[in-house]
Amino acid sequence: MTTSTRPGTKMHINWRKWDGGPHWVHEVVYLGRDEWGAWFGQRPGWRSHRPGRDTLLKTSCVMLLPDPAPASDHGAEWILTVNAPPQRTRVYIDVAWDAKWDGEEPSAIDMDLDVVRRTDQRGIYVDDEDEWEEHRVEYGYPLHVVNRLEKVTEDLTQRVTERTPPFNEETTRSWFDVLDALDL
User: Fold this and answer.
1) Which CATH superfamily is domain 10-178 in?
2) How far is CA 170 from the centre of its chain?
3) Is the pTM of this model over 0.85?
4) Is 75 left (phi over 0), alpha (psi -120 to 50) or beta?
5) Banded pLDDT at 64 (limits 50, 70, 90)
6) Average pLDDT for residues 58-76, to the nearest whole number?
7) Rg for the chain (alpha carbons), in Å?
8) Are 15 and 25 in contact (CB under 8 A)?
9) Does residue 183 contact residue 116 with C-beta atoms inside 8 Å?
């Protein structure tokens, strides 16, 4: 993030795959920072797209790019998305590698695993474990990355289950208020 980034600044969160190939691009607005990191928002009708899929959001969401651990040499290891009701997928965490500000916009490497909390019978689960197994061979994920991100996924699942901050409504409610108040 640059010091000139102000709340209300429109930008994108740019995802890629381990091999550098394109992945999701989310049209977002920068909302601000708190102790957890940088927050972004998307409004209904805003675009998220990747090769082979293009969607327009039906409800608002807020996203958190956490600050990386102080000793990290690879950026943050996840990005949180919280969807507003009536979305049944309320929490969606993309496990990532090298999630960080890349110049004027955030970027990250998608590492397949996702921690999800839904409001229906599916509840809390880890998604795309099949992709994880396939891609760790196809892309040759280094063993230290595999071991680290499997621990991160386990920790995130526990934190979502316990609804500890920032994975709780109390933390994200104020960011939805910021998004709603912006004159865009």
Assistant:
1) FomD-like (2.40.380.10)
2) 18
3) yes
4) left
5) very high
6) 88
7) 16
8) yes
9) no
